[in-house]
Amino acid sequence: MSRMTVKRMPRYRCQNCDRVFGVAKLRPLDEVADLAQRIAPGEPVPAGECKYCGALAHEEAKGEWMSPATRQALREVAEATRGHERFVAEAAGVYEGLADVAEGLAISATKLETVLGEGK
């Protein structure tokens, strides 16, 4: 019986706005202004800067980005599709894409609330 491995794409969490996002929304460290002044002694070096609010962002620990219910659902899918590893790997990729869409919708909703609040 072989066991399938699904490669997790790195996810990053902003220290300030608490958003979770992929590498596309992360400004690389070499583009971050005043980096040495923004890291406290003993603090882990960040992965980059949040493109939403400009705060530093760190890579999330393995498994932290996925809820226990989602992790269980993926286990069930893996068990049900044993022998169809490619399908499961593609499903994991779809989940990553859906997470990015959900993130975008949350940001759009926040912007809409801001606009509607200013219109009052």
Fold and architecture overview:
The protein has 120 residues and is an alpha+beta fold. The protein has 3 helices and 5 strands. It has helices spanning 35-38, 68-80, 85-118; strands spanning 12-14, 20-21, 26-28, 48-50, 56-59. A 5-stranded antiparallel sheet has the order 2-1-5-4-3. A hairpin with a 5-residue loop joins strand 1 (12-14) and strand 2. The model has no long low-confidence stretch (mean pLDDT 78).
Please outline what is shown here.
With 120 residues, the protein is of the alpha+beta class. It has three helices and five strands.
Task: Spell out the key features of this protein.
120 residues; alpha+beta; Herpes Virus-1; 5-stranded antiparallel sheet; 42% helix; 12% strand
Instruction: Give a short account of the largest sheet.
Output: 5 strands, antiparallel
Give the spatial strand order of the biggest sheet: 2-1-5-4-3
What top-tier CATH class of the largest domain fits best?
Answer: Alpha Beta
What amount of the residues lies in strands?
5-15%
**Which percent bin holds the helix content?**
40-55%
The radius of gyration is 18 Å
Write the layout of secondary structure elements.
Blueprint: E1 12-14, E2 20-21, E3 26-28, H1 35-38, E4 48-50, E5 56-59, H2 68-80, H3 85-118
Antiparallel strand pairs: 1-2, 1-5, 3-4, 4-5
